[in-house]
Structure formats: structure tokens, C-alpha cells
User: Fold this.
Amino acid sequence: MKIDVRRNILEANQKLALENAEFFKANRVLAVNVMASPGAGKTSTILATIERLAPQASFKVIEGDIASSIDTDKIAARGIAVLQINTGNMCHLDAPMIGRVLQRFDYDAPSILFIENVGNLVCPAEFGIGADLNIVIASVPEGHDKPAKYPAIFMKSDAILLNKIDSRDSEEFDRPLFLETTQGLNRSAPCFEISCRTGAGLDAWCGWLLEKFQAKCL
Amino acid sequence: MKIDVRRNILEANQKLALENAEFFKANRVLAVNVMASPGAGKTSTILATIERLAPQASFKVIEGDIASSIDTDKIAARGIAVLQINTGNMCHLDAPMIGRVLQRFDYDAPSILFIENVGNLVCPAEFGIGADLNIVIASVPEGHDKPAKYPAIFMKSDAILLNKIDSRDSEEFDRPLFLETTQGLNRSAPCFEISCRTGAGLDAWCGWLLEKFQAKCL
Assistant:
């Protein structure tokens, strides 16, 4: 019984995720689902990426949060089109939540849409939202064991970002073990080691993303 | 329909949480539910606390993880009684999971039982497990805005710990704003600012916990 309810919810979600994907295709949107623990640097990565790629693409952002509009305010302050979804007690974004707000953007030019999921390494991995790319951001202060402890989200991601490589915690962070674990879980996802604070590694990540955008939308 | 399923699950959980609480009382256990984001320092805090209070209390640990036994191995290596619960794709511990393993410890002396929840600032707040104390650990690298973004878990906690106060990120961390937000959400929970790396602040936290243990179990 419990399993059936769960399966029904996931199947209904998947159906709407496919509708979102159709909408993105029709409107020349590359949708990027950004997943991470609380405080790993989702908003910082989105802002740093937009800053670098603004000359080459148009951008939109959907912010998913349990509560508050802190990140939305940060993004709106830069003049970027942004919508807030407050999920209340829901620990992840799902396809219907995204579908309900998509009509509220303008789609005059091809664009990259960042969808910042709720800070959580578990549930967002289970609920597809129809994005073209799913990415997970780990961060050095969280420790090198996160892929081993939360494998599903690393397995389902198209790229893995490791943020805060300038952190002092990097002395205790076993980088080879982190890379070996993520490779073992997901051989096809590239891993970009970045620091949103110093800008390190962002060019490689942005280059990869731009290529995906151009291949789909131009 | 969806709401009813949810309510039924929460009600069934609450019933078993009360049974766990009865078990703890009968066996002179102070049970502490430890909640936090991935990588905030749950295991480090548990180990540092046990090290300080070992002369005054007996300890047990239950480790909740999606996958792996990394933390259980760390704790067992110190000779502490520990049980692993792997939740699979479940993003939190619930009362039945705890109830199923409780019989496997010895209860010859009064003890403190740490129950390390899955790393997640959302779902663990909703599912009581019958613990005497619920605590949440935030950490400086996660940023000062976590209480505003994940209010429920801060509202439901009996103590709030802020870990990694020695982090270099503390330059960007707005400590007054963090304290003001947590106070606004939860006036009765003390906030302990700690560093498991340097030992700062641990005496105050351990003193508070020991008092709770003595009041209940001795």
C-alpha cells in the first residue's frame, strides 16, 4: 500500500516532468536543475555562471526554498529574471511546481534556466522536473564522504561540481578519494572543481555548460 | 487524499515515537536526536561530546545514513556501542526504524543515546522518534541564512549548535543575524557556538547536556 502510493506519486510526477521538457524544447530553453546540501553554494554558482556567460546567453532563474526569498532577492538585485517557489514543508521541487510557474517568464530569446532546488542531498534526486541537465554541487567543508553517503544524487547527475576548493578545510579533504568515489558512482559525469569566491575552475564549467546550451538551443 | 495519506503516516509514526519514549524512560536512557545538513559535523560533535563526558555517563549511538557505514566505523573504532541504520532512499529516520533496533543494546547502566539522523534540514523535523532532546547543528560554512531558509527544524529543537566557528568563512558569517533569527524562531532553545576541531564552546554544551541526563536518569 505504502509502496503503491509512492509509485503513483512518482509516476504522476514523471508525466508532468515530460510536459515541462516539451515546453523547454518548444521555447528554446536549456533547463538546469541545481541540487546540493544547504549552504554548498547553489546561488553563488548560479550568479558566478551568469556573470561569466551573460554575453553569450540569456538567463532565467527559479528559486526553490522551504521559506524566505533571500536568494531571489540576491538574483533580482542583479537584474536577472527570477521566480520564487516556497515549498512550505516539501523537501524538494517537483514537476507540477515547476509547470505552474513556467508561463510567467518571457521566452523571446534562447535561454538558460537555472532551477535551484531545495537544499537537500536526498529527495531532489527522486523527483525529476524535466530539466535537460541535473547537476549536484558538493563543497569541501562538507567532507569527502558525501558521495558515499548520498550516492543516488551523484549517480543521477550530468555534472558534479566541487565548490569551496579554497576552503581551509581542504587540508582534511581527501580529494583523490572524493574523485574516485564519484567516478565509481558515475563514470560519465565530468567533475568541475571550483571556487565561487576566487573564480577558480569556473571557466571550465562555464565552457561545458555553454556547449550544452549551443547544441540544444541555437 | 494526498494529505490524508501524509497525516496517517505522521500519526502512525507519532504513536510509535511515544512507545520509544516509554522504552527510554524504563531503561534510564536520555535519547538525543541529532539533526543537521550533510557535513555540518554531527559525528564530530557526538564524538567530541562522548570524549568529554565519558567519565560521567555511559554512551550508545545509532547512526542513520542513506548508505555506507563510514560514521559507524569511526564510532566503533573508539569502542563505543553503535548500531547502523541504512535508510535506502528515505531522507529521515522515523520512529519504527528506531523501535526495531532498540532491543539490541544492553541497558545495564543509565546512558545517553545519540541518534544521528540523516543529513537533511527538512524531513527529520517532521518525524518524531521519541527522543528526549532534539538538537540541530548548523555550521559556519553553510552561511548565516539557514534558520531563515529552514525554519521548522530550528523551531522544533531543544538546543541549537553552531559548529565550525573557527572556519575562515566566519569573516562572511553574520553572527548577530544568525542569533537574532534563531532567537526569533525559538526563544527557549539555548545556542552553543562550538568548534569540534579546536574544542571551543564544547564545555558549555556538555554541561547543559549532562544536566539534562542527570535530571532524567540519575
